[in-house]
Structure formats: structure tokens, C-alpha cells
Design goal:
This protein is an all-alpha fold. 49% of the residues lie in helices and 0% in strands. The termini are far apart. The relative contact order is 0.11.
Length: 92
């Protein structure tokens, strides 16, 4: 399997994790846990279980959410999945 190309934020996240006593490689468990179709290395983009979507949000809201997610060592996709799943659950 080819090494995964890192995010432009990986160094920032790693340094924040060390300051707080967190793990050295953020997101490693998430990357390893994602099933990939046909043995092709990649992330959600190459996984048939995921679909890319878009939405319009206010710039200020997006900036604040990005900063909070960096502090919490989470991905935007995780937050959206959690919020949409909660919304679906509340409808039943």
C-alpha cells in the first residue's frame, strides 16, 4: 500500500497534540479503520460507502467550525455525519 499523502494541517495538528499530551499521528485510527474498495489505497473519495456533498454556510461559521475541529482533532466529515445522523434519528 502506498503511503497516504498528508494534509497541509498535519504539522499543526501534531504540534497541538504534543502540547496537550495527545497522540503523535492524529487521525491514524480513522484512516486505518476505513474500508477501501478493490484494495486501492485512498480515503473517503475512493470508498463507495461515501458520497461527496456540498452546502452553503456562512464564512464566519465555517471558520469557527474549522478551528474547533482542529482543536478537537476531528474531521469536518465526522461532524457532518454526526449531525445528519442525529437529525435522522430525531425524525423517528
Amino acid at each position: 500500500m502506498a503511503p497516504r499523502k498528508g494534509s497541509k494541517y498535519d504539522d499543526l495538528i501534531r504540534s497541538r497534540g504534543r502540547e496537550r499530551g495527545g497522540r503523535q499521528d492524529p487521525g491514524e485510527e480513522r484512516r486505518e479503520a476505513l474500508p477501501v474498495d478493490d484494495g486501492v489505497s485512498g480515503g473517503k473519495r475512493s470508498n463507495a460507502q461515501y458520497r461527496q456533498v456540498s452546502a452553503y454556510v456562512r464564512k464566519d461559521t465555517h471558520r469557527k467550525v474549522k478551528m474547533a475541529l482542529l482543536e478537537d482533532d476531528r474531521e469536518f466529515s465526522e461532524l457532518v455525519e454526526e449531525l445528519l445522523g442525529g437529525w435522522l434519528t430525531s425524525r423517528t
